[in-house]
């Protein structure tokens, strides 16, 4: 008995076409998109192409000036800039500006700077492994955990006589916080003179020396600083708690990167023949790379000597 198909011939043809189409998808799905499709030509200036990669590079170079723009506006402005740049650059070439000594000097400098930046970026990136950053964090966290911090209140007045008057009232049993609200000239007076927790380096030396010498619950004699006269009461002492790795990861990455770059340059200098005709100036060492211990410290607590007397309460 001859088998009879339940589908019309047209359906057979459709089925074959569908199978062939699916086979094509399977065979070609893994092929990469052509580079020119991923990097399209956005404009041409006198035949010279401007591609998406040119716009992306320009956005990276222009950086902060584009930060407030939405993506579409940014793309449009950068493309317009690149068009103008090509037009002006062609005019400069026609005027033989590229042949001038001044241009060649600047071009050589720009080339060397770009080469240096590119190599140091590579070295820095290679150094910022998870293991390297964790090692820096662990060392800094250990140091921080060994440091003590104090929770204190203070009353700030202008004269020693006034400070002694307040000291006498406190000895008679006056409430420290209430006296601070009434008498202190510090911005934190409304909080009863509460300074929160702070480390030695977060306060001016005279203040820190007095505060860290006190036991919890004790009150100091009048202490003189650049801000005036202080009466200090220590509420509590404790060892510092390091921030988590994630909280300071960006700072540690910056430190590891800069240190690796600095070490790499120092190593290259050893094998380079350098002849300086001038006398090097006596300068302090560069401070652009934070110390490991600083890298694991919260960056939001300004020193009172730099801003106000007390850091933000914690």
From TrEMBL:
Q: Which GO terms describe its molecular function?
A: peptidyl-prolyl cis-trans isomerase activity
Annotated region described as Disordered, given as residue ranges? 270-314
Instruction: Report biased composition (Low complexity) as residue ranges.
Output: 283-314
The record's keywords, sorted A to Z, are:
Isomerase, Rotamase
Q: Which Pfam families match?
A: Rotamase
Q: Which Gene3D superfamilies match?
A: 1.10.8.1040, 3.10.50.40
Domain called PpiC: residue spans = 147-236
Catalysed reaction per UniProt?
[protein]-peptidylproline (omega=180) = [protein]-peptidylproline (omega=0)
Q: Where are the transmembrane segments?
A: none
Which EC class is the enzyme in?
A: isomerase
| Residue ranges with Basic and acidic residues bias | 270-282
Q: Which family does it belong to?
A: Belongs to the PpiC/parvulin rotamase family.
Q: What name appears for this protein in its UniProt entry? A: Parvulin-like PPIase
Q: Which organism is it from?
A: Rhodopseudomonas palustris
């Amino acid at each position: 008995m001859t088998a009879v198909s339940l589908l019309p011939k047209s359906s057979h043809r459709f089925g074959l076409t569908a199978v062939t189409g699916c086979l094509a998808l399977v065979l070609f799905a893994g092929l990469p998109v052509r580079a020119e499709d991923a990097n399209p030509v956005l404009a041409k200036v006198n035949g010279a192409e401007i591609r998406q990669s040119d716009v992306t590079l320009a956005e990276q170079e222009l950086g902060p000036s584009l930060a407030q723009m939405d993506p579409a506006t940014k793309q449009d402005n950068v493309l317009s800039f690149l068009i103008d740049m090509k037009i002006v650059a062609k005019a400069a070439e026609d005027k033989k500006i590229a042949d001038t000594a001044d241009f060649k000097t600047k071009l050589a400098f720009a080339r060397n700077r770009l080469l240096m930046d590119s190599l140091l970026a590579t070295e820095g990136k290679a150094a910022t492994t998870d293991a390297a950053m964790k090692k820096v964090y662990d060392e800094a966290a250990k140091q921080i955990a060994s440091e003590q911090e104090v929770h204190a209140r203070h009353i700030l007045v202008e004269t020693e006589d006034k400070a002694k008057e307040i000291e006498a009232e406190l000895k008679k049993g006056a409430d420290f916080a209430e006296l601070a609200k009434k008498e202190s000239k510090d911005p934190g007076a409304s909080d009863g003179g509460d300074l929160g927790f702070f480390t030695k380096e977060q306060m001016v030396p005279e203040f820190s020396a007095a505060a860290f010498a006190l036991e919890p619950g004790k009150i100091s004699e009048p202490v003189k600083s650049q801000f005036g006269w202080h009466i200090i009461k220590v509420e509590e002492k404790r060892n510092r708690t390091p921030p988590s790795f994630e909280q300071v990861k960006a700072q540690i990455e910056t430190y590891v990167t800069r240190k690796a770059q600095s070490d790499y340059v120092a190593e290259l200098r050893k094998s380079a023949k350098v002849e300086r005709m001038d006398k090097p100036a006596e300068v302090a060492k560069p401070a652009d790379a934070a110390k490991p211990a600083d890298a694991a410290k919260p960056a939001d607590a300004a020193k009172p000597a730099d801003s106000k007397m007390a850091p933000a309460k914690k």
